[in-house]
Amino acid sequence: MILPIRAFGDPVLRKKSKEISKDHPELKTFIENMFETMADANGIGLAAPQVGLDIRVFVVDLSPLADDEDYEEIAEELKTFKKVLINPTILEETGELWKFNEGCLSIPDIREDVARHETITIEYFDEKFKKHTETFSDMRARVIQHEYDHIEGILFTDHLSSLKKKMIKGKLVKISQGDVNVNYKMRFPK
Fold first, then answer.
1. Which among 80, 34, 81, 89 is positioned nearest to 56, based on CA atoms?
2. Residue 74 within any structural domain of the chain
3. CA gyration radius, the chain
4. Residue 30 phi/psi, 5° resolution?
5. Between β-strands 107-125 and 45-47, what pairing exists: parallel, antiparallel or unpaired?
6. Which sites are catalytic (predicted)?
């Protein structure tokens, strides 16, 4: 089932999410719905707060990037990079900070350069509640950091300079009021 994506201004996007247990109700169905919702919106990552739940769950699927010539060197890894991360904790962020133009399904039509560490080590549970500790670099690390921010109540726009924030303020207000054209299901703050 495709879920409505919460728009900028929705309070759930600013909440620090809670950990869940392996017997969380309807978890398997919820994860399936998240992947379906993300694919419908042409996204590569989606966090539970973006669909209205303040729980520490997010999904990533980087296979759409595998055909992009910018990622030729890691195309094979991207083809199969589809993960569910439950109750994740970033243990370490290392390497150079590198800027990349990011966007967000909850903040459509706004893209800005965000600096993030090139490598992370993260501990998480998968959909079967098997514990993993893994290190990721490049685009994989960036997308995970972006989604991890969501479960911490942080949006990519929070990483921008004061000047950039002032420049996009009007667009953010319009998004929160529902004045935006998207080709996916959204829910706007009341």
1. 89
2. yes
3. 16
4. -60, -45
5. unpaired
6. 147
Domain holding 26, by residue range, is 5-175
Q: 49-69: per-residue pLDDT in tens?
A: 999 999 999 999 999 988 887
* Residue 91 in tokens: 């243990």
In whole angstroms, what is the distance from residue 108 CA to residue 7 CA?
8
Q: Is residue 181 part of a domain?
A: no
CATH, residue 120: 3.90.45.10
pTM of the model: 0.95
CA proximity to 156, closest of 39, 65, 127, 164: 164
Q: Tell me if 65 is assigned to some domain.
A: yes
Q: Is 132 annotated as a binding residue?
A: no
The model's pLDDT over 97-139, given as tens digits with 9 standing for 90+, comes to 999 999 999 999 999 999 999 999 999 999 999 999 999 999 9
159 is in an annotated binding site: no
- Look at strands 57-61 and 45-47 and give their pairing: antiparallel
The total domain count for the chain is 1
Give the residue numbers marked as catalytic: 147
Instruction: Report the alpha-carbon distance of residue 149 to residue 85 in Å, rounded.
Output: 13
The residue type of 127 is E
Q: How far apart are CA 35 and CA 41, in angstroms?
A: 10
| Residue from 93, 188, 190 nearest 149 by CA | 93
